[in-house]
Amino acid sequence: MPGKRPGRDPRPVASPVDGLRGVVSVALAALVVVAIAVLTAVLLLWVLDLGGG
Amino acid sequence: MALKPDGRDLKVIAFHLGKVFTGLSAVMALPAVVALVLQEWNAASALLIGAAIALTLGRAAEARLVTRAPLTWAQGTVVVALAWLVGPMLLAVPLLLSGHLGTWLDAWFEAMSGLTTSGLSLVQDLDHLPQSLALYRHLTHFAGGQGIVIVVLSLLAVGGGQIGTLYVAEGREERIVPSVIRTSRFIFRVAGTYLVIGTLALGVALYAAGFRGWRVWWHAVNLFMAAFDTGGFAPMSSSIAYYHSATVELVLVVLMFAGTISFGLHYHLWRRDHQELVRNLEMRTIMVTLGALTLVVLAGLATAGTQTTSTGLVRKGFFTLFSAHSGTGFAVTNGATYLSDWGVLAPAAIVTAMALGGMAGSTAGGIKAIRIGMTVKGAVQDVRRLLLPESAVVVASYHAGGGRRILRDRTLRAATTLLLLYIATYLAGAGVGLLYGRWEVTETLFESVSAAANVGLSVGIVDPSMPVGLQVTYLLQMWLGRLEFSAAFALLGYAGSLAFWRK
Predict the structure, then answer these.
(1) Domains of chain B, residue spans
(2) Which of A32, B268, B301, B395 has a 20 to 30 A CA-CA distance from A2?
(3) Cα(B256)–Cα(B286) distance, rounded to whole angstroms?
(4) Chain-centre distance of CA B77, in angstroms?
């Protein structure tokens, strides 16, 4: 494309809002991991019939 | 054959090391100001003496050895290797002068552990360490986590072309953007953003846990640096168990997760490429290993009868596993119980998680998810080659850095070589521990993996009374693990060349 410098990404890094969105994505992903761990613990106790809450 | 290093090489290396030492003086000067404000005079003098020594050495090297010669690849790697070896010696000065570490070697070990974001500690009476020195310990995590050499040389405006070698030598896989200086700035933007948000979140969690006044923010800042930089130091000797708070633990899991993510992946998330979270090979690998090991740890703890409630399993088992996998090393229970009370499965999974580590290009240590993922893909590729006709072209690819990449044999070989080097280092450290005849192989393996993978969980071998030989072994393991071997090997090669060529 005339006038376009090669190797430059047109999308800028990043407004503070984009940064915040990035932080929120990471936080949500971490919370999903924790939720899966909690679910695993509950199911495991049920399967092993240990009956813990 | 290695080229003969000459005086000009040494001058260039010493000049750049001087710049790093100047930067390290700032790491000591900042908590010195805090010490003066808090009127902790002994700590202030210890920190100022340390800063003065580093500054004097740094400025002297810069002034007397001034050079405009560009850094070669070999020189750059030697600068990094030496900076990570000698830098902690300078950072050890305030720790030694504080009187909370028994010997100079203890202080060097502590500083190495801090800078490499390991978290193993030899501090005596940690709970009564002056607040400024506690902040200083955590600041070493922050400095080391961001990559002290690259940060210092970026801030001191060494030419961009020259520091590209340092960036890779410091254990970072790839530049996030073409310019290393811009990459370094981006890393600081990410760290700065998380510093503000993470400290606020921890502050709220600590307030909810009953902390009040300045203690909220002092604990929050220290914990943030230890969590986000996957370090593992804690302000109190009982680590995270001190807080008795599920909310604090939850916030720490989020911060550890953010710390174990590569800065490259942060970059894509900051550019709204949220799909990268599910497509990235490293993230997929970590999710698989974390999921499988979570099941093993929880099943191990439940069947051993150590934890029989879901709350206990998650807060003790999962938190410890996550702390191990992310390379942080926060503890929520006495380390000695990992092997005495946790059965067989759970500690085995914890050791495996420590050995695997986080993502390449993050502050986490260990083998790294990208190498595990590549090795698995390589193995699958080999099986496919066996099963398909000889004429079939078998190509493996993976998603990383925002796009699809071909898994080339050279890349795969580099990954498997490093994987083997890490395993050899883990085993070697365990072997050295066994030589003393005081510990079981399970204990020495746990501690060795924790040191070489820069994690920091301990079953109790790391202690002020530990043998000097083992202390040096763990210190070198932390150094090797942080530099991912190459820079350390380059230093050895360079030293060998010097010795060989000198008549």
Answers:
(1) 1-172+481-503
(2) B268
(3) 13
(4) 18
In chain A, % helix, strand, coil (3-state, to 5) comes to: 60, 0, 40
Torsion (CA) B481, B487, B492, B493 in degrees, nearest 10: 140
Please report the DSSP string for B9-57 in residue order: HHHHHHHHHHHHHHHHHHHHHHHHHHHHHTT-HHHHHHHHHHHHHHHHH
> What does the DSSP 8-state code read for residue B69?
P
Q: Which of B271, B274, B290 sits opposite A11 (nearest CB)?
A: B271
Please state, in angstroms and rounded to a whole number, the distance separating the CA atoms of residues B135 and B114: 11
Please tell me the distance in Å from B21's CA to the nearest CA on chain A: 31
DSSP B327-350: T----SS-TTHHHHTSTTHHHHHH
Give the ipTM: 0.87
Please give the Cα distance from A22 to B6 (Å, whole number): 48
Q: What are phi and psi of B334, to 5 degrees?
A: -60, 125
Q: What confidence tens digit (pLDDT) does each residue in B73-100 have?
A: 788 888 889 999 999 999 999 999 999 9
AA letter at B251: V
Pairing outcome for strands B397-400 and B403-406: antiparallel
Q: One-letter amino acid identity for B343?
A: G
Distance CA B51, CA B90 (A): 8
Contacts with B128 (C-beta within 8 Å, 6 or more apart), sequence order: none
- Closest alpha carbon within chain B to A50: B308
User: Residue B180 is which amino acid?
Assistant: V
Burial B194-224 (b: 16+ CB within 10 A, else e): bbebbbebbbebbbeeebeeeebbbbbbbbb
For B263, the closest chain A residue by CA position comes to A22
Q: What secondary structure, in 3-state letters, does B200-235 show?
A: HHHHHHHHHCCCCCHHHHHHHHHHHHHHHCCCCCCC
CA B163, distance to chain mean position in Å, is 21
Torsion sign over Cα B194, B200, B204, B206: positive
Dihedral through CA B187, CA B253, CA B241, CA B46, nearest 10?
Answer: 0
CB burial of residue B127 (10 Å; 0-12, 13-18, 19+): exposed
> Which mean pLDDT values do the consecutive 10-residue runs of chain B (503 residues) have?
68 89 93 96 97 95 79 83 94 96 96 96 94 96 81 56 60 63 81 94 97 94 96 95 96 96 89 87 94 96 91 96 96 93 95 95 90 94 89 86 86 92 97 96 97 96 96 97 88 82 58
Q: Which residues of B touch A39 (CB under 8 A)?
A: none
Rounded Cα gap, residues A15 and B24, in angstroms: 31
A36 shares contact with chain B (CB less than 8 Å): yes
Nearest residue, CB atoms, A44 vs list B261, B290, B298: B298
CA dist., res. B491 & res. B360, Å (int):
22
DSSP-derived letter for residue A12 is P
Q: Which residues contact B288 (CB under 8 A, 6 or more apart)?
A: none
Nearest to B308 among A13, A37, A50 (CB): A50
